Amino acid sequence: MAAPITAVAARVVAGRGVSPGAVRAPLVRLGPPVVTSPDDPAGVDPAAEARRVREALTAVAADLERRARNAEGVSADVLTTTAAMALDPALADAAERHLAAGAPTGHAVTLAVEEFCGRLEAVGGYLAERVADLRDIGARTVAQLTGLTMPGIPAPGYPVVMAARDLSPADTASLPGGDVVGLLTEEGGPTSHTAILARALGIPAVVGCPASAQIPEGTLVLLDGTTGTVQLAPPAGAAAVPATSAPEAAAGPGHTADGTPVALLSNIGTVADAELAAMTPTEGVGLFRTEFLFPKRADRPTEAEQAATYAAVLRAFGERRVVVRTLDAGSDKPLPFLPLGPEENPALGVRGLRTARAHPEVLDDQLRALAAAAEAAGRELDVMAPMVSTAEEAARFADRARGFGLSRVGVMIEVPAAALRARELLDVVDFVSIGTNDLGQYVMAADRQSGALGDLLDPWQPALLDLVAAVGEAGRAAGRPVGVCGEAAADPLLAAVLVGLGATSLSTAARARPAVHAELARFTRLDCLRLAERVRSARGAGAARAAARAFRDERA
User: Fold this and answer.
1) What whole-number distance in Å separates Cα of residue 522 and Cα of residue 524?
2) Are 467 and 144 in contact (CB under 8 A)?
């Protein structure tokens, strides 16, 4: 184990900046979970202990569901999904087996959880990312069994930067209104739950920083979620910057300094998301993730159920644009009602539009429901398909969607093949939207959930931006809209680069909009073009980011 950092003056450690803004506060650590051992006292009646375990898991799920009801947007979605994991009977069954083999009660839960964690890690991708959630369920269940305090968020009564190995959804969703003003984790990547939720909550965050484990608790730090750096014992003059700034520039349509319009849209996943986002200055929805509508469903939702949900979202936004993404499930994003079988390499498997090869009825149901929702709401919508690789796939989807009466049809650009052949795709669809998270994953051959490969997943990677530029050029040539709905659009300075690369709209979490709006308003369209050229000429992500900052400073 590395020696603790004791000479903290002028020391800086670095990780991945995943939620912008800078905060200055003492560092505290997340409360540790209860540690179990095979030497703990065992219960005399395994059957009775098994009942206690099931009751404890039910209580943990109930607590998570209560937190979900008090949370909003993506936080509520994640908590609901985690509660469902606690109620999985297979987890209780595994604990019962360990109890029957003589394990102490709390340790039987730990063994069962680790058994499932091993399986998830073996699958990799999205499922491996659920390991932290599962271990949190185990820690909470053990605390419930032993009557000890639940592990979780410190509340010292003053602002703090909280450090942890990683955060569970329950921990992160408990942050609003508390003392934590910044997050620092040893693990995690730019698309981990911690990163996504930190951005949604507007809390500056740095992830993937192993050196943070060596920082003594109580050290004053300046955490910069934009640069990914953490300065220990910063000088008195070191300034903290709010996560969102320039609210005076937040209202009204997005635009550059010379008035070039850039639609600033919202990413949503539920009706509640839609209702909250619709009350903000957003110009519409750039990404409606429909798969989050039914996370616990064992059966396929009916057309009527889907249509009612889609219509509610459309009504919330009146005449504003709403782009609906058809189900992005399968492979490393499994849904119980969409059986596709195990895959050796899920990230490259049957996912998104590809699921329609085996289950065309699921896509047809959804398209019919979307058409019915549009008719019920008395307005049009835009529909796009995920994981499209070829013009033939795009054409088949477009024909299918238009056959159900949906007139504005697009596709996601998430794989390099689609980016490189964007001109052909735009011959058959009305618009494209770039998912920078997946596009970055596939162009760099780096699992988007991997903290160890976080540097390759940096959205400032010039290779990723080259592909965005190829799509932008295709859009300009075809006279068709090119949106960006990945996390890259939420980085204010990178947003200006994306516009220079050809993006005509940017879709982000609602909290990111003010800063993006303000930054865009500082640059003319010509500035954005020059900025994009300078960034693309850089040799790496760090150099690209530095080049962009230098360009901004030159214009200040």
Assistant:
1) 7
2) no
The yes-or-no answer on residue 359 being catalytic is no
- How, if at all, do strands 220-224 and 22-29 pair? antiparallel
SS3 content of the chain, % helix, strand, coil (to 5): 50, 15, 40
For residue 467, which of 438, 447, 490 has the smallest C-alpha distance?
438
Q: What is the pLDDT of residue 299?
A: 77
- Give me the catalytic one of 98, 117, 209, 485: 485
Residue 345, pLDDT score: 77
pLDDT of residue 344: 74
Count CB atoms within 10 A of the CB of residue 457. 26
pTM for the whole structure: 0.69
- pLDDT at position 3, please? 40
Task: List the one residue out of 363, 489, 437, 434 whose CA is nearest residue 125.
Answer: 437
pLDDT of residue 291: 80
Least Cα distance to 460 among 435, 431, 485, 491 occurs for: 491
DSSP three-state, residue 177:
coil
As a whole number of angstroms, the distance between CA 268 and CA 202 comes to 16
What's the distance, CA 431 to chain centroid? 23
- Active-site residue, selected from the candidate residues 98, 193, 359, 517: 193
The pLDDT value given to residue 7: 42
Closest CA to 144 of 36, 287, 239: 36
229-232 sheet: strands from edge to edge: 12-14, 229-232, 220-224, 22-29, 160-164, 180-185, 205-207, 16-19
Q: Does the active-site annotation cover 193? A: yes
Query: Which residue ranges in the chain fall short of pLDDT 70?
Result: 1-10, 70-75, 77, 123-129, 149-150, 155, 157, 169-170, 173, 176-177, 190-193, 237-250, 292-298, 331-333, 336, 449-451
